[in-house]
């Protein structure tokens, strides 16, 4: 080894060591800046969830017990409630996808000024209380409400139909409330699509329908999947709208948790239900993350 190569190797080793030291200091600085946020998460999330988990193992006599979870296993009614919750969440997610995709696609075709008004119309319901919106649907869906009155005047129906305090009313109200949660991420994904790819497909002879299904739709799937996951997870824990529009005839997990708090002398039964719902929600999120990572590299590439 020559002297020049020796000193070159020493300089490279010193540079690598300096770079590692800089990276270590940068990580420590980032960790220090993140510490307040981590403490806030610990106080507002980890401690309450941990307390909930601990309460789920407290029996009716105040002792450590698995009786709350045993009750969930033995009582088949809890399984029916979970199935109803998943069914309603899936139906609402499907409806939001069918309504939200054309809406988001239409917004991307509008001029910039019109896009602002369209997005304002989508975000505007967030400025109104969830309880107020639910009561508004109760007024619209009752037998003498606007929906039945309009259908009667148009001759679509001969007598008012039951749209309130049942499955249909719950789905209608929740779909309206959840729709913006799908449109917003979907619109962001559609807006980020490179229009050069669409123009390239047109130059290659692809028609509008072919361009949509081979370019636009595949590239919008991440936004559609993110929006659908948000809608589904939020629907799993919904309480106010199904409690009011369902009229007690449609029972979801969140409603059953409230009834457990009122029925049993301690919060153990309700905590066990909440823990199971939390675990199921986490599994759904992990499944969505796994699907996204699996399909991340399968996007269309045009050469």
Cα-to-Cα separation, first versus last residue: 48 Å
Number of helices: 12
Task: Summarize the biggest pleated sheet.
Answer: none
Cα-atom radius of gyration: 27 Å
Protein name: ABC transporter permease
What are the SSEs and their pairings?
Layout: H1 3-55, H2 67-74, H3 76-108, H4 112-123, H5 130-141, H6 146-154, H7 167-191, H8 195-203, H9 208-236, H10 240-245, H11 253-263, H12 268-295
Q: What report would you give on this structure?
A:
The chain is mainly α. The protein has a single domain, classed as MetI-like (MetI-like fold, Orthogonal Bundle), CATH 1.10.3720. Helices cover 78% and strands 0% of the residues. The protein has helices at residues 3-55, 67-74, 76-108, 112-123, 130-141, 146-154, 167-191, 195-203, 208-236, 240-245, 253-263, 268-295. The model has no long low-confidence stretch (mean pLDDT 83). This is ABC transporter permease.
